[in-house]
Amino acid sequence: MAWNKLSEKEADKFFLRINLKPLEPYKSSGTPRKCICLTCRSIVYPRLGDVKKAKTCVKCQGRNTGKSIRLSHKEISETAKLMNVKLLGSYVNNRTPIEAKCLVCKNLIYPTIGRLRSGMGCIHCGRIKVAQKRLIPREIALRDFEIARLKVLSEYRNSHQRLKVKCLICKKISTKTYHDLKSGRRCYTCGRAATAKKRRLNPEYIRAVSIKQGLELIGEPQPVRRNSRFRCLRCERIIHMTFVSIQKGSSCRFCSRTEVDPKEAVRYMLKHKLKPLEQYTKSISKWKCQCLVCKNIVYPTYNRVTTFGGGCSYCRSAGYNPSFEGYVYLIYSAKFDSYKLGISNIKARLRVHELKGWNLVSRWDFSDGRRPPELEERILEHIRIRWGLPWSVEANEMPQGGHTETFSAIDLPKSKVLRLINSQIAGI
Which terminus of the chain has fewer CB atoms gathered within 10 Å of its CB, N or C? Predict the structure, then answer.
């Protein structure tokens, strides 16, 4: 036991001094001790150190403090009268809302007495006062619209009201608030026109860039994403192009061979003894023509004629000739583990492949020489698209030619390929 520890009897004197009756034995000055207040009959747990400083029970002390600062009925009435408010509820404390009625706007409100005493009365009247202070006078608002060359066609009330206005420049009618006007948003139509004018390129700059691409501007330039008229300085053609494409490096599409003049295409085909029987569409499309030599109807593409020369498949001296009997063949190479499909009119074609290590798998003969080319095209289309097999041998590995008709034999049985060819023959 510490030498300075109070006895329970001595400690009880301090508790009884402030009307607290201990209900449990005393342990130490820092241990809470259960007590009952003889005044308010409340159960509290004070420490001896707090009891020595206190004058009464903590709950009684709170009640006494509340009574000392509680407003009188007279003070509350004077505060309500000063703020033009009629109290309808009973007063509890400064922080509890109380039902009241505003004597100005007649609205029910629920203020606290503390807010009323600080000068904040009816919230509705307060908002109206603030709005009136911030309200732009009608004369000033109409003057600003007049300065902006906008004619107001409706009644002005506040800065956020949408007004019907008419632009005195472009004569367009629109809706606009005074807040929009002060934010810099005037007439939408005039604004777009002004922005477009600022962004529009100088015609001299357009002419200079076009000259570098071999094009001469004709007339006034259109917006950069619209077609303008140009004259090609090389072929003298009149073409329509956007300036955006010229900036990216484009030039005359006829000189760059990305587009073909239909008249020139007809002249080129006639030069190669082919008379077109229908209008020209595009370079990769089949074009119905009549050979001026053998009078047969053929379907060459303009791109193939200009690239490889010739045109009539019946009159050419090299390669496959559909005027004679032909055959389809399938050969296999163990070196490349690949198949090759081909057509020919001569027996020596197979001998050329055999000398390069290819072995004959099967051969199909046709008396009508027009059937093998059609059959070959259909079979290769099925292999490339349905089976998804590209050619499997490079051109430098087949000097005898025909690498584009090859396809891989990996995981592809011979019986499956033969079944495909026989089914296509039956269908044709």
Answer: N
Give the predicted TM-score (pTM) of the model.
Answer: 0.36
- Which two three-digit tokens encode residue 193? 């026109």
Q: What is the Cα–Cα distance from 53 to 344, expressed in whole angstroms?
A: 122
Separation CA 169–CA 186 (nearest Å) = 11
Largest CA distance in the chain: 141
Query: DSSP readout, 228-288?
Result: EEEEETTT--EEEEEHHHHHTT---TTTTTSS--HHHHHHHHHHTTEEE-S----TTSB--
CA pair distance 303, 258, nearest whole angstrom: 11
CA 353 – CA 361 distance, rounded (Å): 12
**Which residues in the chain land under pLDDT 70?**
1-4, 307-310, 314-319
**pLDDT at position 415, please?**
93
Q: What is the pLDDT of residue 408?
A: 93
- Residue 310 is predicted with a pLDDT of 62
Question: What is the per-residue pLDDT for 244?
Answer: 84
In 168-244, DSSP assigns E strands to: 173-176, 215-217, 227-232, 238-242
Q: Which two tokens stand for residue 218?
A: 């004709």
The span from the CA of 194 to the CA of 183, in Å, is: 17
The SS3 assignment for 83 reads coil
The predicted structure's pLDDT at residue 35: 93
